[in-house]
Amino acid sequence: MATGNFRIASAVIALVVLALSVSVPMQVNAQAAVDPAAKQTLKRMTDYLDSLKQFSVHTQTTLEDLLDSGQRIDSDVSASVTISRPNKLRAKRQGELLDQVFFYDGKTLTLHNRSDRVYGTEPAPATIEEMLRYANDSLGLIIPAADLVYHNAFPMLMQGVTSAMVVGKTVINGVTCDHLAFSRPDVDFQVWVADGTQPLPCKYVVTDKSTPALISISTVMSDWNVAPAVADDSFTFVPPEGATAITFLPLDVSSGATAQ
Amino acid sequence: MKTILKTAVLSVCLGLLFLVDVPPEFPLRVEFVPEAHAILGVRRRAFRRGAVIGAGVAADETAAAVASQPAAAPPPAPAPAPAASGKPLPLGTVVSSLPAGCTSTPVGGVDYYYCGGNFYKAAFQGNNLVYVTAKP
Lengths: 260, 136
Description:
The complex is a heterodimer.
Chain A: H1 2-29, H2 36-51, E1 54-66, E2 72-84, E3 88-95, E4 99-104, E5 108-113, E6 118-123, H3 128-139, H4 153-158, E7 163-172, E8 175-183, E9 187-194, E10 201-208, E11 216-225, E12 244-245, E13 247-248, H5 251-256
Parallel strand pairs in A: 6-12
Antiparallel strand pairs in A: 1-2, 1-11, 2-3, 3-4, 4-5, 5-6, 7-8, 8-9, 9-10, 10-11
Chain B: H1 2-16, H2 32-55, E1 94-95, E2 103-107, E3 110-115, E4 118-125, E5 128-133
Antiparallel strand pairs in B: 1-5, 2-3, 3-4, 4-5
């Protein structure tokens, strides 16, 4: 309980500090709602990500949610992602509700549910971006950290942005990061970008403004490696003993069927 | 304490947000949000399942909530559990968890689960493991 109170107190203090630190740039930016400096830093980040041939990163995501009763429950998901452009990706995602590894080797994609000892494999398009689109559009599959891969991430993020500001600088996991805040009609998002020659994302927070609860998703990134040692065979799934192959439901079927 | 937090959040939000017109919605066209939906879809079902087990109510209407919709869609309304009487479900019916008392039967290299007059097999629906009624 003491810990809980402490956490809440810390959160309140953090929020108040944030509020205070925000108030000054707010006034500065009151006339120009979209601060070019915020856009520029975001663009520097997406361009840098785009320029990387290979990288690996660890992400820690907290998903806020409300039970039907209104009680707030958070879920944490930890993911490790390794990408080798143009056509290799491996992602391990673990949390209280998930224990999955995703493999893509340029020919097939595989989703492996380790705790259930089942996996599904499908032929896949030839590049990571095409694969992500196919996985999402045809299989309803969401790959962790897919945001980091898209070539056109910048226009996608900026679409509909009505306000952009540089909040300030902070330190996340020992790295000095520029704190940017953007607002869109239904969503606010904040991005923290590492200061220096490697403008990598340190953290994202996305807040859904469509509900009064202002539910957020936050992801902290760490252990960036822009030159990871990657063996090609580490992207190819080899079924472990006892694992069973299952199929993916086509998206139209999966969205249409009901249990009655 | 909660009030303080709320107030703090509110004041920060008021401080942070410009009042914006709200034209037609632009969902964030990146993956954070769909990914959250995908994961939370699993949790909603897990909570429902947990609640059912905890209460010991076999016929709770959420016992076999329909598996989550595709990632970006809103969570589906819970569907009634398959009838325990053994009334067969239409083929291709998707449930998020097997009814109680299923027995596993491998047929031609595929594991089928038989219970309540239905055969089920496991499948992925997006990132979620679901069970689909099927004919062995």
